[in-house]
Design brief:
By secondary structure, this protein is of the alpha+beta class. It contains one helix and eleven strands; from the N terminus they run H-E-E-E-E-E-E-E-E-E-E-E. The radius of gyration is 33 Å and the shape is elongated. The structure holds 2-acetamido-2-deoxy-beta-D-glucopyranose (NAG). The site of 2-acetamido-2-deoxy-beta-D-glucopyranose has 4 residues, from strand 3.
Length: 197
């Protein structure tokens, strides 16, 4: 009986000892693998960061959208700026819903977009909408729409433009001294920074 117990204990402790040394070896292997990976990751990390900085904006996001909420803005005159009174989004700041002017918060490449609804001619003013997106007063792109007696019409345009911090972007009516501009969230003005520089 004692002999049997001796055998059992010997076999057990032998296999136990084997298992421990096998595990120790495996842990050492894993340690060296992990160490090698850490070294790789550290070098790799620097490159990754450089790529990210090149491709993405480093500050931001910067984006705004505003809309004309009343049914119409009546009797607009040549050169008058369109005030998109309701701010839907203004991340990064810059849009003023009292003046309609967007002040660029960070220097970079921007996209600006404007969609305008031409109201029907009548009490609100005449139809035939001409407008333009301007930067510091200089025309960038133009929008046209011409409604009919009982149908309204919509025009839009979009521009990619580099802009410096502090530049002013807005939308103004041109070539019409008495325009009835449609609202009700059809007329919108948006912008976003694509790339900071
Ligand atoms: C106008 O802008 C201000 C912030 O500049 C905001 O608090 C307010 O809600 C905006 N008004 C509308 C109608 O979107």
């Amino acid at each position: 009986m004692n002999l049997l117990l001796f055998f059992v204990v010997t076999i057990f402790s032998q296999s136990y000892g084997n298992e421990v040394s096998e595990l120790r070896e495996r842990v050492q292997n894993l340690e060296s693998i992990v160490n090698a990976m850490v070294v790789k990751l550290e070098t790799c990390n620097c490159q990754e960061t450089a790529v990210v900085n090149k491709r993405q904006v480093t500050e931001g996001p910067v984006a705004f959208t505003a809309a004309v909420s009343p049914r119409s803005i009546d009797h607009m005159t040549d050169g008058q700026s369109v005030v998109f009174d309701t701010t839907i989004t203004d991340i990064g700041g810059g849009y003023d819903n009292k003046t309609g002017i967007y002040v660029v918060p960070l220097t970079g490449l921007y996209m600006f977009q404007c969609s305008l609804l031409d109201h029907m001619a009548g009490a609100h003013g005449t139809s035939k909408l001409h407008a333009e997106i301007v930067k510091n007063g200089n025309m960038l792109v133009r929008v046209f729409a011409h409604s009919e007696d009982t149908y309204r019409d919509q025009g839009s345009n979009l521009v990619f433009i580099p802009a410096n911090k502090g530049d002013q972007i807005w939308v103004r009516v041109v070539d019409n001294g008495d325009l009835g501009l449609g609202g009700q969230f059809y007329s919108t003005f948006s912008g976003t920074m694509m790339w900071q520089s």
